[in-house]
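Lecture 7, part 2: worked example. A protein chain together with magnesium ion.
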Amino acid sequence: MPADPRPRRSALYMPGSNPRALEKARDLPCDVIIMDLEDAVAPDAKEAAREAVAAALLTGGYGGRELVLRVNGLDTAWGYADLAFAAGQPVHAVLLPKVESADAVRRADAVLTAHGAPDELALWCMMETPRGVLAATGIAGASPRVAGFVMGTSDLAKDLHCLHTPDRLPFVTALGLCLLAARAHGLAILDGVYLDLGDDEGFAASCRQGVEFGFDGKSLIHPKTIATANAAFAPSEAAIAWARRITAAHAAAEAEGKGVLLVDGKLVEALHVAEAKRLVALAERIQALHGSA
Ligand SMILES: CC(C)(COP(=O)(O)OP(=O)(O)OC[C@H]1O[C@@H](n2cnc3c(N)ncnc32)[C@H](O)[C@@H]1OP(=O)(O)O)[C@@H](O)C(=O)NCCC(=O)NCCSC(=O)C[C@H](O)C(=O)O
Ligand SMILES: [Mg+2]
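Predicted complex, written out as structure tokens:
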């Protein structure tokens, strides 16, 4: 468990070519902002998008939100220049699209390093192709910079020829493989976007399912979905109260030389306390970031 888990309940994408969205993001209660140079930006707007992102980051005002810059792939006309640009930007992470191998991560890492990126600049990887999903473990461990995965379920559906069903059964294998690889390597992992902005109920259900799977949060395409994702991925008040209770009860039991106990008839061991402490730390970080859970 990370000692100090960072809130990543809601990660809002915005086109780098949309200055209004970049400006609006300063006042939105999302935990993560993903400024996109890739698929949300038309080919003839790629360079203007880089300039708009640079101007927005120079102005700042994004508070404690985590800033992520999605670049184009190194196999495109813009990828190298995007990475060279990203190396000098005040962002927390660079998000690589369509990552299919550990080697692709290492090539991107080398460009960042050659352009003076600090060691703290993280790499996040879009997991959105069949090859990428099958190479998830190698990708997760490819470089010390790799700190997160983001599921790209739209590209994945295209390559799998599958449908976006309400239960997301067609994605279960891919989501599970990426979750396993991310957790095995101590990475953050965010669920894919929900495309139907008119279906609030379906969106809420997909957030609940993301929580059940174990994702840290959900990637989003519109500000109106932030509140639902934030509520779904935050520990509930009842969960926090329970976490505090079992932590205290377990400490008292330990003082009496016992490793296990029952609280309200439920078995509590050290592993439950570890998860309880993670939830409480997460709730405290959310409070510090936005002032409320
Ligand atoms: C989908 C949109 C194009 C809709 O935009 P718009 O018509 O402007 O929406 P609204 O009029 O309802 O907007 C209301 C206000 O909110 C601001 N807004 C809208 N979207 C964003 C946003 N994403 N970030 C910040 N601010 C936003 C508008 O400017 C309005 O503000 P105001 O002027 O005050 O009224 C648009 O939402 C959009 O572009 N969304 C992001 C699309 C995107 O980034 N797509 C790429 C990422 S998803 C992906 O690639 C998936 C992955 O790779 C995979 O394979 O699965
Ligand atoms: Mg994609």
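Strands lie at 10-15, 32-36, 66-70, 93-96, 122-127, 146-151, 188-191, 217-220, 261-263, 266-268. Residues 237-290 form one domain. Keep this in mind for problem set question 3.
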